[in-house]
Amino acid sequence: MKKGRTKTVLLSKNFLSMPEIRGILDYARSRQWILRVPRMLNLAEEARNWQGDGVISDNECAMKELKARGIAIVGLTDLPPELLRNADILLASDDNRIGTMAADYFLHRGYRNFVCAAVNLRRTAFLRRIGESGFRSETIDFALDSCPGQYGKELESVLRKTPRPFCVFCDNDFDAAVVADAAGSVGLRIPEDIAILGVGNESFFSNPSALALSSVDSRLYERAFCAAKCMEQLLDGELPRREANGGEPTIFRFAPSGIVERESTDFYAVETPRLRKMVHFLQENAPSQFFRVSELAGKFLLTESSVYRAFRARFGISPKQFLLEERLRMAQRRLADTDDTLSAVADSCGFPGPGALHYAFRRKFGCSPNEWRQADPVGRNRYGHLYGDGFTRCRVCAARRQAAGASPPDRIR
């Protein structure tokens, strides 16, 4: 079609995801598209009868017909087979990294009892990393969106019989909310008995009034924004259609930016009473820049080497590194929830000065404290705090710049 002409695009969305919808709407408004958003009940009919320029979809509705009519197709996932077989471009999450990140996060927090409710590659990656660490995970093999109906009692049975404390990795935030409800039904305390982690950082599910759910931030807004940009480039001839690409779709995979920690995982799984008390003592004293690990050893009548061995054995890091990470988490909360200067944040979080905070923050998350604070809440969410922890770098600033102009990362043909 002629470059610069107004585009007419159908958003065929089967799964309600507000970040994705906002991302596409924001781009469409900026380019003055005519964007059709049908009701979910009418998706199949709308897709079959669509006569516009393109379709952005997360489902299989009328894919063959759309392709046969030469309509450009951009997919928001690579899972539906018909979408995979007919789309020109697919934008998908990096599920291998998501599953691995979730496993590393729970291992870091000391868990030894695991339940995996994720599916496909997220499940495979999670189970693989847990197995590599010498543990095994229970699995939930039924659809959580069928709870509390058909499988409600079965889910409750799994939660009852799993040794405590344990953690559950869910495929998305909707499923995480289902598990949280089931945990309450069987009298499990969150996070003391069960820690729950979802995927997507969907504020609708992650921030209910009763319980805030932790989530892997899979960059839904950015992915959807880039999907709309790809549609524009397809229609303008700047990106190749499927036929010009050897009959294969161009696939972009988005690595997760980090884990947004909230109440549902705010717990270290430590069975040993003395080590649990040491963790609490360290957390209580983290705001003091004068606190040293030697004080921790003295408090519990241990040698420093004994303290180091205990933390290494349980968390895989030294108590000094544990202390630094607690201070960085505190700093993230202050940066997100207050307008305090960097000097005030550093002073209240145990850092000797703003320079020390800036150095530690950039080294850990890949951006400065001020860049992180100024990032769009879609990437940094004011109700939670990204947990990079060396498993992946926090890309909130780069992600925002990317969505505004650059092409998506990790291109696969």
Automatic annotation (TrEMBL):
Key word DNA-binding present in the record? yes
Alphabetized Pfam families for the sequence: HTH_18, Peripla_BP_3
- What does the UniProt keyword field contain? DNA-binding, Transcription, Transcription regulation
The record's listing under PROSITE patterns reads: HTH_ARAC_FAMILY_1, HTH_ARAC_FAMILY_2
Domain (HTH araC/xylS-type) ranges? 276-375
Molecular function in Gene Ontology:
DNA-binding transcription factor activity; sequence-specific DNA binding
Tell me the organism's taxonomic lineage: Bacteria, Pseudomonadati, Lentisphaerota, Lentisphaeria, Victivallales
Q: What is this protein called?
A: Helix-turn-helix domain-containing protein
